[in-house]
Design goal:
The protein has about 230 residues and is mainly β. It is about 0% helix and about 45% strand. The N and C termini lie far apart (about 55 Å).
Protein backbone atom coordinates (compact mmCIF):
# COMPACT_ATOMS: atom_id res chain seq x y z
CA UNK A 1 0.00 0.00 0.00
CA UNK A 2 1.28 3.53 -0.78
CA UNK A 3 0.01 6.90 0.40
CA UNK A 4 0.62 9.88 -1.89
CA UNK A 5 1.40 12.97 0.19
CA UNK A 6 1.81 15.45 -2.59
CA UNK A 7 1.35 15.69 -6.31
CA UNK A 8 3.64 17.68 -8.56
CA UNK A 9 0.70 19.81 -9.67
CA UNK A 10 -0.22 20.83 -6.12
CA UNK A 11 3.26 20.72 -4.59
CA UNK A 12 1.53 20.28 -1.22
CA UNK A 13 3.23 18.68 1.76
CA UNK A 14 1.10 16.44 3.97
CA UNK A 15 2.34 14.83 7.13
CA UNK A 16 -0.46 12.51 8.20
CA UNK A 17 -0.79 8.78 7.68
CA UNK A 18 2.52 7.49 9.08
CA UNK A 19 2.51 4.94 11.88
CA UNK A 20 2.98 6.14 15.48
CA UNK A 21 6.28 5.54 17.30
CA UNK A 22 8.08 6.85 20.39
CA UNK A 23 9.45 10.40 20.20
CA UNK A 24 12.98 9.22 20.95
CA UNK A 25 13.09 6.53 18.25
CA UNK A 26 16.58 5.91 16.91
CA UNK A 27 17.12 6.75 13.27
CA UNK A 28 16.68 3.69 11.04
CA UNK A 29 19.41 2.52 8.69
CA UNK A 30 19.16 3.74 5.08
CA UNK A 31 18.03 1.49 2.25
CA UNK A 32 20.79 -0.38 0.43
CA UNK A 33 20.11 0.91 -3.09
CA UNK A 34 17.47 2.56 -5.27
CA UNK A 35 16.46 2.31 -8.92
CA UNK A 36 14.66 5.06 -10.87
CA UNK A 37 12.65 4.13 -13.97
CA UNK A 38 11.28 7.00 -16.12
CA UNK A 39 7.91 6.38 -17.78
CA UNK A 40 5.68 8.02 -20.41
CA UNK A 41 2.14 6.89 -21.29
CA UNK A 42 0.14 7.03 -24.53
CA UNK A 43 -1.14 10.53 -23.76
CA UNK A 44 2.42 11.78 -23.14
CA UNK A 45 2.20 12.04 -19.34
CA UNK A 46 5.69 11.70 -17.84
CA UNK A 47 6.32 9.97 -14.52
CA UNK A 48 8.88 7.81 -12.78
CA UNK A 49 8.79 4.72 -10.59
CA UNK A 50 11.25 4.32 -7.72
CA UNK A 51 12.16 0.92 -6.28
CA UNK A 52 14.64 0.00 -3.55
CA UNK A 53 16.34 -2.87 -1.77
CA UNK A 54 17.57 -3.39 1.77
CA UNK A 55 15.07 -1.36 3.80
CA UNK A 56 15.66 -1.40 7.57
CA UNK A 57 13.53 -4.24 9.04
CA UNK A 58 12.69 -2.04 12.06
CA UNK A 59 11.34 0.82 9.91
CA UNK A 60 7.62 1.37 9.34
CA UNK A 61 8.24 2.03 5.66
CA UNK A 62 10.01 4.39 3.31
CA UNK A 63 9.34 7.89 2.00
CA UNK A 64 10.16 8.63 -1.64
CA UNK A 65 11.03 12.26 -2.39
CA UNK A 66 11.19 14.26 -5.63
CA UNK A 67 12.78 17.70 -5.57
CA UNK A 68 14.06 19.88 -8.39
CA UNK A 69 17.81 20.32 -8.25
CA UNK A 70 20.69 17.99 -7.48
CA UNK A 71 21.03 17.95 -3.67
CA UNK A 72 18.98 15.54 -1.57
CA UNK A 73 17.56 17.26 1.55
CA UNK A 74 18.46 15.72 4.92
CA UNK A 75 14.74 15.02 5.50
CA UNK A 76 11.85 14.90 3.02
CA UNK A 77 10.08 17.88 4.61
CA UNK A 78 10.90 20.24 1.72
CA UNK A 79 10.24 17.79 -1.11
CA UNK A 80 7.87 18.79 -3.89
CA UNK A 81 6.39 15.28 -3.99
CA UNK A 82 6.41 12.74 -1.17
CA UNK A 83 5.11 9.20 -1.28
CA UNK A 84 5.05 7.11 1.90
CA UNK A 85 5.17 3.37 1.22
CA UNK A 86 4.44 0.88 4.00
CA UNK A 87 6.45 -2.34 4.13
CA UNK A 88 6.74 -4.87 2.60
CA UNK A 89 6.23 -2.88 -0.63
CA UNK A 90 9.46 -1.99 -2.43
CA UNK A 91 8.32 0.47 -5.13
CA UNK A 92 6.53 3.81 -5.27
CA UNK A 93 4.34 3.43 -8.35
CA UNK A 94 4.21 6.26 -10.92
CA UNK A 95 5.07 9.75 -9.62
CA UNK A 96 4.51 12.60 -12.08
CA UNK A 97 7.05 15.40 -12.59
CA UNK A 98 7.56 18.50 -14.72
CA UNK A 99 9.36 17.80 -18.03
CA UNK A 100 12.65 19.57 -18.85
CA UNK A 101 13.56 19.89 -15.15
CA UNK A 102 16.40 18.16 -13.30
CA UNK A 103 15.35 16.25 -10.19
CA UNK A 104 16.99 14.57 -7.25
CA UNK A 105 15.15 11.40 -6.24
CA UNK A 106 15.72 10.33 -2.64
CA UNK A 107 14.49 7.46 -0.47
CA UNK A 108 14.36 7.56 3.36
CA UNK A 109 13.51 4.80 5.80
CA UNK A 110 11.19 6.21 8.50
CA UNK A 111 9.93 5.30 11.96
CA UNK A 112 6.75 6.76 13.43
CA UNK A 113 5.20 10.22 13.74
CA UNK A 114 5.35 11.21 17.43
CA UNK A 115 6.17 14.06 17.56
CA UNK A 116 7.38 13.64 13.96
CA UNK A 117 8.84 10.83 11.85
CA UNK A 118 12.42 9.81 12.39
CA UNK A 119 14.19 9.46 9.05
CA UNK A 120 17.29 7.67 7.88
CA UNK A 121 19.89 9.46 5.82
CA UNK A 122 18.75 9.60 2.18
CA UNK A 123 19.88 7.37 -0.65
CA UNK A 124 19.52 9.38 -3.84
CA UNK A 125 19.99 9.66 -7.59
CA UNK A 126 20.02 12.74 -9.84
CA UNK A 127 18.05 12.56 -13.07
CA UNK A 128 18.75 15.10 -15.81
CA UNK A 129 15.94 17.14 -17.33
CA UNK A 130 15.67 16.70 -21.09
CA UNK A 131 14.15 19.14 -23.59
CA UNK A 132 12.85 18.72 -27.14
CA UNK A 133 12.09 21.49 -29.64
CA UNK A 134 9.46 21.38 -32.38
CA UNK A 135 9.57 23.09 -35.76
CA UNK A 136 8.03 22.34 -39.14
CA UNK A 137 8.13 23.56 -42.73
CA UNK A 138 5.35 22.94 -45.22
CA UNK A 139 5.47 24.30 -48.80
CA UNK A 140 1.66 24.19 -48.76
CA UNK A 141 -1.09 23.04 -46.43
CA UNK A 142 -3.20 20.98 -48.79
CA UNK A 143 -3.88 17.25 -48.60
CA UNK A 144 -1.12 15.24 -50.27
CA UNK A 145 1.64 17.81 -49.71
CA UNK A 146 4.67 17.02 -47.56
CA UNK A 147 6.01 18.74 -44.43
CA UNK A 148 9.38 18.37 -42.74
CA UNK A 149 9.14 18.23 -38.95
CA UNK A 150 12.33 18.81 -36.93
CA UNK A 151 13.40 18.54 -33.30
CA UNK A 152 16.48 19.22 -31.17
CA UNK A 153 17.17 17.12 -28.07
CA UNK A 154 19.08 18.84 -25.25
CA UNK A 155 20.19 17.86 -21.75
CA UNK A 156 19.19 20.90 -19.67
CA UNK A 157 21.45 19.84 -16.78
CA UNK A 158 24.54 19.74 -18.99
CA UNK A 159 23.27 22.49 -21.30
CA UNK A 160 24.27 20.48 -24.37
CA UNK A 161 22.61 18.77 -27.36
CA UNK A 162 22.32 14.98 -27.16
CA UNK A 163 23.45 13.00 -30.20
CA UNK A 164 22.52 9.53 -31.43
CA UNK A 165 19.38 9.07 -29.34
CA UNK A 166 16.00 7.76 -30.43
CA UNK A 167 13.10 10.23 -30.53
CA UNK A 168 9.51 9.63 -31.62
CA UNK A 169 6.95 11.72 -33.47
CA UNK A 170 3.38 11.11 -32.27
CA UNK A 171 0.11 12.27 -33.79
CA UNK A 172 -3.58 12.46 -32.90
CA UNK A 173 -6.79 13.91 -34.21
CA UNK A 174 -7.98 17.27 -32.93
CA UNK A 175 -11.09 15.98 -31.18
CA UNK A 176 -11.14 15.84 -27.38
CA UNK A 177 -9.46 12.74 -25.88
CA UNK A 178 -8.22 11.63 -29.29
CA UNK A 179 -6.00 8.56 -29.31
CA UNK A 180 -2.29 9.21 -29.87
CA UNK A 181 -0.20 6.95 -32.07
CA UNK A 182 3.45 6.85 -33.03
CA UNK A 183 4.04 8.20 -36.52
CA UNK A 184 7.84 8.03 -36.84
CA UNK A 185 10.95 7.04 -34.92
CA UNK A 186 14.21 8.82 -35.66
CA UNK A 187 17.75 9.05 -34.26
CA UNK A 188 19.31 12.41 -33.48
CA UNK A 189 22.38 13.30 -35.51
CA UNK A 190 25.73 14.52 -34.20
CA UNK A 191 24.23 17.92 -33.38
CA UNK A 192 21.21 16.54 -31.54
CA UNK A 193 18.75 17.17 -34.39
CA UNK A 194 16.25 14.74 -35.92
CA UNK A 195 13.77 15.27 -38.74
CA UNK A 196 11.12 13.38 -40.64
CA UNK A 197 8.76 14.03 -43.55
CA UNK A 198 5.01 13.57 -43.25
CA UNK A 199 2.27 13.64 -45.88
CA UNK A 200 -0.70 15.78 -44.94
CA UNK A 201 -4.18 14.35 -45.18
CA UNK A 202 -6.23 16.28 -42.62
CA UNK A 203 -5.73 18.61 -39.69
CA UNK A 204 -3.91 16.78 -36.85
CA UNK A 205 -1.89 17.33 -33.70
CA UNK A 206 1.81 16.43 -33.58
CA UNK A 207 4.27 16.00 -30.72
CA UNK A 208 7.88 14.85 -30.34
CA UNK A 209 8.62 12.52 -27.40
CA UNK A 210 11.82 11.22 -25.83
CA UNK A 211 10.84 7.80 -24.51
CA UNK A 212 13.86 5.48 -24.38
CA UNK A 213 16.19 7.52 -22.19
CA UNK A 214 19.87 7.13 -21.41
CA UNK A 215 21.38 6.73 -17.96
CA UNK A 216 20.59 9.57 -15.52
CA UNK A 217 17.99 11.09 -17.89
CA UNK A 218 14.22 11.67 -17.72
CA UNK A 219 11.52 11.25 -20.34
CA UNK A 220 10.14 14.40 -21.95
CA UNK A 221 7.90 15.79 -24.71
CA UNK A 222 7.22 18.95 -26.70
CA UNK A 223 4.06 21.00 -26.76
CA UNK A 224 1.34 19.70 -29.07
CA UNK A 225 1.28 21.44 -32.43
CA UNK A 226 -1.63 21.54 -34.83
CA UNK A 227 -0.95 21.54 -38.57
CA UNK A 228 -4.08 22.71 -40.32
CA UNK A 229 -4.85 21.22 -43.72
CA UNK A 230 -6.91 23.39 -46.07
CA UNK A 231 -10.27 21.90 -46.99
Amino acid sequence: MRLVYATVAALALVTTGLAAAPAEAAAPAPVSSISVTPLIDNQGTVSLNVSWTGADPSADGVVVCLKRGTAAPSTPDTCESRVAVAKPSTSSGPITFYPAKTYVVAVYDYIGTTPEPTYSTPVSQVRHGMKLSFSYKCPSYTAGSQCTITTLLKDVYKGAPVAHRSVQLWTAGTQKNAHWSQLARKTTDGTGHARTKITLDKTKLYQWRYVTVGAHELTTYTARYSITVAS
